[in-house]
Specification:
Length: 333
């Protein structure tokens, strides 16, 4: 799945090789850190990029050096015929990796097909191992479906990680039980700082469970916790409990300590390019496509925009004209 092609670098010398592509803003859960209880005003169908438009964008971006795509949402599998779209883009010879982030409630019927397609990895969102807390956090009673997906993924050939958003007064008691999964299973459990993208304008005046607090909590339970290699563009700093099969990670998504090696761009569910999670959108790709721009014109716009990237998430936030108030369901994680 790989051929030689050039890589584009941003104005800070960082390669841009990874696209996070949101295929829908819709989700069948209502997680507290993602959207309000009443949900959000979902986009009309015509405001969402078609599969043909998404495929065209992917073809342009892989010509510029994008070699990894992560399919996100909302919950990506609420979109009809997603599996066929994934199969189609898997034929792009310039793509090395295709990954998926999912809440796991709808994934089970597609796991064998994803194995056939050759999906590189799955990130499974799981914030608790307790059914009652799951219902409280997600405002839906679908814990059993997610756990079924967990075990089906374990039986499959698809590598997967668990992503857990750490929330004060919600799931602190789940940190160690989730970490304990790495004793039995060869997988990565990653704990994520809560971000201010819950559709309500932030996560409070101050984040309590920062990277350092999460790490100290783990070290209290595992005094011999060892730091291990995290890779050149990893968002997580990774650790291992001696003699455990899997590994642990912490993602400083709010503290933004990994910006210096960021190789990611995002296209959200309404066709807006974000060169940083914390910007408000820097290019309306949907309108450009629908106004009849050529592939070359779109490619040149991408290249120009990549040379305007903020140094980090703090600079991106300062450039915004309005305060953070989006839902992560729209942004795409």
């Amino acid at each position: 799945m790989n051929t030689d092609h050039s890589v584009i670098y941003d104005n800070h010398g960082r390669p841009i090789t990874y696209l996070r592509l949101s295929v829908t803003d819709r989700c069948n859960l209502r997680c507290k850190y993602c959207m309000p209880a009443k949900g959000i005003n979902f986009l009309p169908r015509e405001e969402i990029l078609s599969y043909e438009e998404l495929e065209r964008i992917i073809n342009i971006l892989t010509g510029l050096g994008i070699s990894k795509i992560r399919i996100t949402g909302g919950e990506p599998f609420v979109r009809k015929d997603l599996i066929d779209f994934i199969s189609t883009i898997s034929k792009n010879k310039k793509l090395k990796k295709i990954a998926i982030t999912t809440n796991g409630t709808l994934l089970a019927p597609y796991i064998s097909r994803l194995e056939e397609i050759g999906i590189t990895s799955v990130n499974l969102s799981l914030d608790t191992l307790d059914p009652d807390r799951f219902k409280s956090i997600t405002r839906r009673d679908q814990f059993d479906q997610v756990i079924e997906t967990f075990y089906l993924l374990k039986k499959s050939s698809i590598p997967f990680k668990i992503n857990t958003v750490v929330m004060e007064d919600e799931n602190i008691e789940d940190i160690i039980p989730l970490a304990e999964l790495t004793q039995q299973y060869d997988l990565s459990v990653r704990f994520i700082e809560e971000m201010p993208f819950n559709g309500k304008g932030g996560n409070g005046s101050k984040l309590t469970w920062t990277y350092d607090k999460i790490l100290n909590h783990l070290k209290d339970e595992y005094p011999n916790l060892k730091t291990i290699s995290s890779g050149p563009h990893s968002t997580s700093t990774n650790y291992k409990v001696p003699n455990y099969r899997g590994k642990l990670g912490i993602i400083a998504a709010y503290s933004r300590t990994f910006c210096g090696t960021c190789n990611r761009i995002r296209i959200d569910s309404q066709g807006t390019l974000k060169t940083c999670l914390y910007d408000s959108g820097v290019l309306n790709i949907k309108d450009i496509l629908r106004d009849g721009a050529s592939d070359e014109e779109i490619s040149n716009l991408f290249k120009h925009t990549f040379k305007q990237r903020p140094k980090d998430g703090f600079e991106a936030e300062k450039r915004r004209k309005e305060k953070l108030q989006e839902s992560m369901s729209v942004i795409g994680g």
